[in-house]
Amino acid sequence: SPNLQPLPDSPPPPPSPPEVTVFVHGEGGCSCIGIPALILTRNRTVLAFAECRMWQGDGCHLASGTPTPKNPNCSGTCIVMKRSSTGGATWSQPHIVAGAGGNVMPVFDAIRGRVVLNYALGSANDPPYIQAAASVMVTVAETDGPEILSAAAWSTPRQIAKYPGGWANHPGPNPAVQLRAGSPHAGRLVFSGRLHNTGKTCSAVVWFSDDGGESFAQAQHGFINGTCEVGVSQMADGRVVLLGNDGAAHDNGPCPGNTLQHYFSTDGGDSFGPVICDHALVNADCQAPVPAPY
Q1: Closest CA to 285 of 35, 24, 21
Q2: Distance set, CA 54 to CA 27, 28, 67, 70, 191 (Å)
Q3: End-to-end CA distance of the chain, in Å?
């Protein structure tokens, strides 16, 4: 019989990347910093957006004895961001880029070299709904360089949806996605959020822009109630996936137990198929980010 040689030892697994703290409660004059969203632009540049809250609660509290921070550029809730030019290893100081607003949903438009940010603004009194923002806004920065940390780099915010009477009242909070070349509607910017929130159930909504954030349209869908904070991304096979938190255990969603619901689109986000439940997708109390596979 032939001589059998022993197999070489398997190489050790690569070390886990170091954890890097991006935002810290109390920095930048923010009592709390919550619901963040990170996007990769180009040349190892990463942009991190979040809510700067001049209040505590909703799972966010300063350490005992910490003085209450103050930021004259922020009233109530505003938008704070940091920038990394080292692939996320190191970060800039926090900067306020919008003096009012929250529920950020940013995306980098690689075709036009711009950053498009959707966010919620104001409050709508429409019982029985709660946490209803009066407007979804858009602002655009024509750069991802260091100057993006200045509010002056961002365009005057525009209202793209209103509530009641519109098709959305809270984006994300998560990154949006630009569809890859070769996909239906390549270059399209796809966003997601919720339409309303009774405190017991919410309804998901998807909208998109085919012109780099100049105009927006709502996707056709039949999303089932029961998801309040949703994430959107593109699969390796080109499908667009919508992943929603708050299953049956939280907001009376369609999925059994403590699981997430998701939907797929094969036409670039124009429409979505029926709800899918997967026990492997464990529910979360907030957000439902979907990292892109590239």
Answers
A1: 35
A2: 11, 11, 12, 7, 27
A3: 47
Provide the 3-class DSSP secondary structure of residue 153: helix
Q: How far apart are CA 120 and CA 240, in angstroms?
A: 23
Beta-bridge partner residues of 77: 53
Collapsed DSSP state (helix, strand, coil) of residue 37:
strand
Spatial distance between the Cα atoms of 137 and 117, rounded to a whole number of angstroms: 8
CA-closest candidate to residue 179, choices 263, 95, 270, 253 = 270
Task: Name residue 1's amino acid.
Answer: S
CA 72/CA 9 separation, integer angstroms: 60
Collect all residues with Cβ–Cβ distance below 8 Å to 167 and sequence separation of at least 6. 161, 195, 205, 207, 218
- CB-based contacts of 104, cutoff 8 Å, min separation 6: 35, 36, 37, 49, 50, 51, 79, 117, 118, 119, 171, 172, 173
pLDDT in tens, 39-98: 999 989 999 999 999 888 877 777 777 777 888 888 789 999 999 999 999 999 999 999
Report yes or no: 256 and 237 within 8 Å, Cβ to Cβ.
no
Q: CB under 8 Å to 214, separation ≥6 — which residues?
A: none
Strands lying side by side in the sheet with 135-141: 102-109, 114-121, 135-141, 158-162
How many of the other CB atoms lie within 10 Å of CB of 42?
Answer: 9
Q: Are 37 and 175 in contact (CB under 8 A)?
A: yes
13 token code pair: 């697994």
Whole-prediction pTM value? 0.89
Query: Coil, strand, or helix at residue 34?
Result: strand
Q: Which residue has the tokens 């399209």?
A: 188
Structure tokens at 103: 């529920």
Query: Facing residues of 37 across strands?
Result: 49
